Amino acid sequence: MYFTDRGIEELESRRGDEEITFSWLAEELRHFVDVNPQFEVPVERLATWLARLDDEED
Fold this sequence. Notes:
about 0% strand, mainly alpha
């Protein structure tokens, strides 16, 4: 189990029944990076990965 699994599990248990939009998620990610600029690169990588989930793999 990775350390991040705890955060993911908490997210799922607290908000797993909610429905959100990608616009809301994008705004929250922007806010997170504004408050925590040291996480800009990982958030960028996550956002890009999510955006390209449907792309065909090479």
